[in-house]
Amino acid sequence: MTDTRTGRKLALAAALIFFSTLAVLLARQFSLVPDKPVPAWRTFGPETAQVRIVEYTDFACPACRHASGKVDEMLKVFNGGLHVTFKHYPLLNIHPWSLHAAAYADCAGEQGKFKEYADLLFEGQEKWGTARTMPGEFEVYARRLKLDWPAILACSEAPATLKRLKLEIAEGEMRGVNATPTFFINGRRAVGSAQLIDQAMKFDNILRGSAKP
Amino acid sequence: MNEKLTRQDIGGLIARLAVGGVFIYSGLIKALAPAEEFAFAIESYKVVGPQLALIAANVVPWVELWAGLLLAAGVFTRLTAGFIALMLVFFELLLGQAWLRGLEITSCGCFGAAGSNSLGQEFVQNLALLLICAAAFKHGLGFSADRALEKHEG
User: Fold this and answer.
1) Which long-range contacts does A189-194 make (Cβ < 8 Å, 24+ apart)?
2) Domain check: are A104 and A46 in the same one?
3) What interface predicted TM-score (ipTM) does this complex get?
4) pTM here?
């Protein structure tokens, strides 16, 4: 009798463990994971916007450069109804300088010029993306924007900056991001600018309705 | 449901749900976040290195979630309550040593990366949970799966 009872308890325990594990893994898979906040300089558009895009990007990826232009256009056209959150997802195995670029861009953001620095990184990605030694472009771009380069260097090596980047990569991995650019438009996944536009069309009415004239 | 509940049973049930609920919440919030996030919190206690911290960060949230569920449902009630109490004692030791060493810990990692109370407040909070856990251990069989199974088998 005791063996049967213990057996039933074990079966119940196993069922609870199995279903709870399954539920959590499904929640992860379907991106029901709460978004971690990013620094203010990496968000664009009004907080109240009904359509929200979270973008995982690598500065050295050509498709990301192309998508970046599309996102800028969308922000211009639907400026009232669209909110974009920029997240770093440097593909470290194929782009050796992506992590540096992400850190420098964030540190430029601390000096108020994230977007400007990011645009220069995308523009010149062919020059620095595959460099064998530390590319000089990072400093050139900073100086062109009249940023404090020594401060950027110090900031890029700060544990807080590296921690933020590592956590963003880990978050991307958990959400199943394995290619860049990956977007989540109100939670729906899109990879590349074609899918982004395709998904955004589904929100066309909302976007047009809330766009400022 | 002919179970005649005593006041102690009701107290035990509330204790089980309270401690189980806290562990479910704590486990869930961490299991839904990148493990690295919790690993950073573990590292800040300066007890284990980054690799071990990452392993612990991958394991602990699940253990918390499962133990919380089992306690809340009342499966192997005493065993689960005892196990959770041991975990709480372990957490107390971690918090205590950080407190004594004056470590600067911005997030204790208790409920994910969200900001936490001071180490002292977390220590007291865990102590309270430990006491409630003791009540769950002693009187937690009311409305439990354990008792339902016993009744089912006569």
Assistant:
1) A189/A31, A192/A63, A192/A67, A193/A63, A193/A66, A193/A67, A193/A70
2) yes
3) 0.86
4) 0.68
